[in-house]
Write a structure and sequence with these properties.
mainly alpha; ABC transporter involved in vitamin B12 uptake, BtuC; two-stranded antiparallel sheet; two-stranded antiparallel ribbon; globular
């Protein structure tokens, strides 16, 4: 597929996602009881909670543009959270603990990348296996026992403020999410590595013939996902003031849902950081809006599932039409 056509598909996907986002926000702003959706307290709550999943979805999104999946995020995140908590319990400064968590995420991502690249097996199967492995490993280490960390973090208010504080009325978490999204978006649009990502996702054989190291690209992307899982785990643990082995349950599917809703193709080669960013908020808006409308929990999940199907059908139709 030629670059102009790829850009056209990406632009159309981003426009459709933006329209969908405005539409969803408008619907819930009007129909939630007492217009609770646009209540400042609800918006602030969404801004605090969305980055937990959002950071993970950013990494999963650029990985899916390269044509791969990562289901292990729901196990890597709580694993990193557990290690962070153990560092704090050992008397380590939380900032140092944060930096020492990143190698854990890098290692988990590196393992996924190498296994996917060298075995040739579908990433769905590889990362499903590593998800189960890390989950069992974590359950054994933690014995499924929650751990409170407030007494360790309360000694470091500046650390807490840097991760879960506010800048005026804006929660710091959303600033981190936006900053990382902008950084990754610049890489995708302006850097040579971004071109490699699209090339690998569009046509791996052609990318290899062009001299692109596919193993390097995919492994690097899995490592980025791992780092974002590590960072998200520390933010989430700091916000909650505790660790639980069941943190991030369902994130592997919600992240994929957000990315797909954002216009990224399941086949790879098509997607944008702007679309992924909006997709994250569309999924969170649907979830929050339906809860405010007192829809039962199972109804919320069902509705999000229907929305994802509709977005996939729409995106596939548009991709095929613009590829002609």
């Amino acid at each position: 597929m030629k670059e102009p056509r790829i850009r056209t598909i990406q632009n159309m996907g981003s426009i459709n996602t933006a329209i969908a986002f405005v539409g969803v926000v408008a619907v819930f702003s009007i129909f939630t009881p007492g217009h609770l959706f646009i209540d400042p307290r609800n918006l602030a709550s969404m801004a605090k909670l969305t980055p937990d999943l959002g950071l993970v979805a950013l990494g999963v999104g650029i990985l899916m543009i390269a044509g791969e999946f990562d289901l292990s995020v729901s196990s890597v995140l709580p694993l990193c959270s557990f290690v962070f908590v153990r560092y704090l319990m050992a008397g380590m400064h939380p900032l140092l603990a944060l930096f020492l968590i990143f190698p854990i995420g890098l290692a988990a991502g590196f393992l996924n990348g190498i296994l996917v690249s060298k075995t040739g097996l579908p990433s769905f199967i590889i990362t499903l296996s590593t998800m189960l492995f890390w989950k069992g490993f974590l359950f054994g280490l933690s014995r499924m026992m929650p751990i409170s960390i407030n007494r360790y973090l309360n000694e470091y208010p500046r650390f807490q403020a840097a991760l879960i504080g506010t800048v005026g009325p804006v929660p710091v978490q959303i600033i981190w999410l936006l900053g990382i999204a902008v950084f990754l978006g610049i890489i995708l649009r302006k850097h040579r590595f971004g071109n490699w990502i699209y090339a690998v996702g569009s046509n791996p054989q052609a990318a290899r013939a062009m001299g692109i190291d596919i193993t390097l690209v995919k492994t690097s992307l899995y490592m980025i996902v791992g780092v974002l899982c590590a960072f998200s785990s520390v933010i989430q643990a700091t916000r909650l003031g505790s660790f639980a082995a069941t943190q991030a349950v369902g994130y592997e599917l919600k992240a994929i849902a957000a990315v797909v809703v954002g216009g990224t193709s399941l086949r790879g080669g098509v997607g944008s950081m702007w679309g992924i960013f909006l997709g994250i908020f569309i999924v969170k808006t649907l979830e929050t809006g339906l809860i405010l409308m007192r829809v039962p929990v199972f109804g919320v999940e069902a509705f999000i599932g229907i929305a994802v199907i509709l977005f996939v059908i729409l995106n596939e139709y548009l991709n095929r039409r613009n590829a002609r």
